[in-house]
Sequence to fold (217 residues):
Amino acid sequence: MDNSILLISDLAFEYKLGPKIHFPNFEMKAGEHSLLLGDSGSGKSTLLNLIAGFSKPLQGEVRIQHQSIYQLQGSGRDKFRAQQIGFIFQEAHFLKNLTVMENIQLAQSLAGFETDKEAIERLLNYLQIGDKKKAFPHELSRGQLQRVAIARALINKPALLIADEPTASLDDNNTTLVLNLLLDTAQQYGSTLLIATHDKRVKDSFSNTIQLNNLQR
Ligand SMILES: Nc1ncnc2c1ncn2[C@@H]1O[C@H](COP(=O)(O)OP(=O)(O)OP(=O)(O)O)[C@@H](O)[C@H]1O
Fold:
């Protein structure tokens, strides 16, 4: 086995009442970090949904550590996704009646793992929000919530960490801070990092870029 984490080949998707999108072939190896670049509407979110197995392609394949995501069904696919992929969305959603600690424990349970409070505390401390473990989501600032989102995405040490537009609404200082945090934490937890963005400011931090083409209209 080589160290292939993500392989995209011959992938295309068609919306029922929308465009047909062809994606470029690419592969990510363990420990790499890549930027998925494309203008608004070029298909970044569509590709992330395909990688996660939330939607099925018209053709082609997504393999995560050699496993075809579409060959898995139902709860098997859900568990595989929870174990192998960590997601950070532009707007993080947490269960508002659960504390930070409980929200992250839930991510462990959904992946079929025993909850491990010490591992969560270590990760929260690494992200400098250890003092917030008993807080509820509405008691945190946006920056703190983003760190909780990073913790939740990484707690299961996923092979692949995907961040969708993590810097879209941030000023330059916070953009650098969040990028460095993502890069450092992904490395610390052994995850391969794919960041989807149309934020040109982040380009310089990445040697690997995957460019989506604008759709023909
Ligand atoms: N449910 C849908 N039905 C029809 N067309 C859709 C649907 N969702 C997205 N599209 C179209 O598919 C294309 C790709 O959309 P997608 O959301 O993947 O782009 P994106 O690169 O993530 O954009 P953004 O950066 O603005 O989030 C766009 O042209 C969009 O209008």
Summary: Residues 4-211 form a domain with the Rossmann fold fold (CATH 3.40.50.300). The mean pLDDT is 91.
